[in-house]
Amino acid sequence: MVPVDYYVILSAILFTLGALGVLIRRNPLIIFMSIELMLNAGNLAFVAFGRSYEVAGGQPFYTGQIFVFFVIAVAAAEVAVGLALIVEIFKTKKNINVDEMNSLKG
């Protein structure tokens, strides 16, 4: 069995890459992909910690998987709303550069 430390280290690396993508890149689609990478890094940590603990009787502890289900549902809603906003902004301004979007006025 792979130790939990390896999963946590991988999760930290993925989260760091996602945070760097959010801070460095200026394309909204890349920013959304970086946010998704950060959420999936958290999901990996949830599953790793949930898998490492067992309740009495040797049964696995499924709380990590339950958290992952809710995080994926929230991420799907976030992407749907975010992409709809990007499409509407592109229709009105013909540009989706994050630095140039300082207001939602048309």
Task: Give a summary of the structure in a few sentences.
By secondary structure, the protein is mainly α. 73% of the residues lie in helices and 0% in strands.
What would you note in describing this structure?
It is a single chain. By secondary structure, the chain is mostly helical. The protein has one domain: Helix Hairpins (Orthogonal Bundle), CATH 1.10.287.3510. 73% of the residues lie in helices and 0% in strands. The chain is built from three helices and no strands.
Low-confidence stretches: none
**Fraction of residues in helices?**
over 70%
CATH class: Mainly Alpha
CATH architecture: Orthogonal Bundle
Q: Strand pairing plus helix content: what structural class? A: mainly alpha
Supply Rg. 18 Å
- Average pLDDT figure: 85
Strand content: under 5%
Distance between the termini: 56 Å
Tally of individual domains: 1
How many β-strand runs? Answer: 0
Order of helices and strands: HHH
CATH names the topology as: Helix Hairpins
| Overall geometric form | elongated
Sheet having the most strands: none
How many separate helices?
Answer: 3
